[in-house]
From TrEMBL:
UniProt-recorded name of the protein: Acetate kinase
Site note Transition state stabilizer, residues: 180, 241
Gene: ackA
Quaternary state and interactors: Homodimer.
Purpose: Catalyzes the formation of acetyl phosphate from acetate and ATP. Can also catalyze the reverse reaction.
Length: 399
């Protein structure tokens, strides 16, 4: 069963075709600059040269038409006809309180998914446009929506209710939702598998550290808390996002310093975090290099970042009454031995011992604690696409 996984953003679209008999990804592709001058598609198949198409891509329907063409291309494609695509799994950022699990997408379901748009105005609308375009071009192929928020719907009320007037929750749905759920679910389950343990017996802190960063407390296989909130702006500091700060800063900037709300929004989402403090870049590698060359603000940015992650790990170990394992994933978590080391510094009292030599690995599944360590530390590369494909196949098979 070949499953197409689509992650549709406002001007970009990532895709993979996964052969679910082996769970191998057959092809990975990216369409960029949809609706903007200079649009292009790049498709990668292992062992072959990259396939790049530069052409006008007016909208998402155009983009998906191009993707389907690239998949069946005689020279660069991986399948003979579109009939080989058994199902499509779509990433949807926000499923609100309604979706605690993935769902088969019908016209009717799509309408209720659209009701979640108000909660994620930047993210959900492009996801839905992508779904609609696929439905039009592949009317007979079953489709599934997989939500970033779903895994966190198991959080207890004490974790997700904001200390604001309760009516704001009742009337507007203002609460913590959490994001990166597909990733937290994947790495926590993979960890249990690698450890040879039943996930029901484990207390895990999962650290998804990429451009966006979030941590989750996963107890018995369920998310009981996570650091992102009503939107993906909350929690630990990120590449360009501030993470949680005193909300009074916003009023101060607007009332005392003449900022507009739009400027503040831009500042918190795009100009803060690692970029904001360092003044160098949002890319962790650039900031690390600058710090190594003596740039004090770059060093400070890393220090603040590691401090935030460390404090969050400790908090989740606290609410779970101890931990059995910590997992690092995503671009920084999988690749940066420095971040893993610094984020764990001082937390040895939780019961782990980091193995500095093992910690030097990059991008592969590896235990990085010592054999004697009671609490285990792992690096586990995330695979959100596979998780989406798995959910898709499971739901389609049960239809
Ligand atoms: P996204 O959240 O957009 O999926 P990624 O998970 O790809 O992002 O993470 C991107 C981040 O990972 C960037 O800050 C990048 O600098 C960092 N990163 C990638 N490779 C390395 C590396 N070898 N060492 C340190 N950081 C890395």
């Amino acid at each position: 069963m070949k499953t197409l996984v689509i992650n549709c953003g406002s001007s970009s679209l990532k895709y993979q075709l996964i052969d679910m008999s082996t769970e191998e990804s057959m092809v990975q592709g990216l369409v960029e600059r949809i609706g903007i001058e200079g649009s292009l598609l790049t498709q990668k198949v292992e062992g072959r040269e990259k396939y790049i198409i530069k052409t006008e891509i007016k909208d998402h329907k155009d983009a998906i038409r191009l993707v389907l063409g690239a998949l069946i291309d005689e020279k660069y494609g991986v399948i003979k006809s579109m009939d080989e695509i058994a199902a499509v799994g779509h990433r949807v950022v926000h499923g609100g309180e309604k979706y605690s699990e993935s769902v088969v997408l019908t016209e009717e379901v799509l309408k209720s998914v659209e009701e979640c748009n108000a909660l994620a105005p930047l993210h959900n609308p492009p996801n839905i446009i992508g779904i609609k375009a696929c439905m039009e071009l592949m009317p007979n192929v079953p489709m599934v929506g997989v939500f970033d928020t779903a895994f966190h719907q198991t959080m207890p009320k004490e974790a997700y209710i904001c200390p604001l007037p309760y009516e704001l929750y009742e009337n507007y749905g203002i609460r913590k939702y959490g994001f990166h759920g597909t990733s937290h679910k994947y790495v926590s389950n993979k960890l249990a598998e690698v450890m040879g343990r039943d996930i029901k017996d484990l207390k895990i802190v999962t650290c998804h550290l990429g451009n966006g960063c979030s941590l989750a407390a996963v107890k018995g296989g369920k998310s009981i808390d996570t650091s992102m909130g009503f939107t993906p702006l909350a929690g630990v500091m990120m590449g360009t996002r501030s993470g949680s700060i005193d909300p009074s800063v916003i009023g101060f900037l607007i009332n005392e310093k003449g900022y507009t709300m739009q400027e503040v929004d831009e500042l918190l989402n795009k100009k803060s975090g690692v970029l904001g403090i360092s003044g160098v870049s949002s890319d962790f590698r650039d900031v690390r290099d600058a710090a190594e060359q003596g740039n004090e603000r770059a060093k400070l940015a890393l220090d603040v970042f590691h401090y935030k992650v460390r404090a969050q790990i400790a908090a989740y170990a606290g609410v779970m009454g101890g931990i059995d394992a910590i997992v690092f994933t995503a671009g920084i978590g999988e690749n940066s031995s420095l971040t893993r080391k610094e984020s764990l510094k001082g937390l040895e009292f939780l019961g782990f011992e980091l193995d500095n030599e093992r910690n030097e690995i990059r991008g592969e599944i590896q235990e990085i604690s010592t054999d004697n360590s009671r609490v285990k530390i792992y690096v586990i590369p995330t695979n959100e696409e596979l998780m989406i494909a798995r959910d898709t196949v499971e739901l389609i098979n049960n239809m």
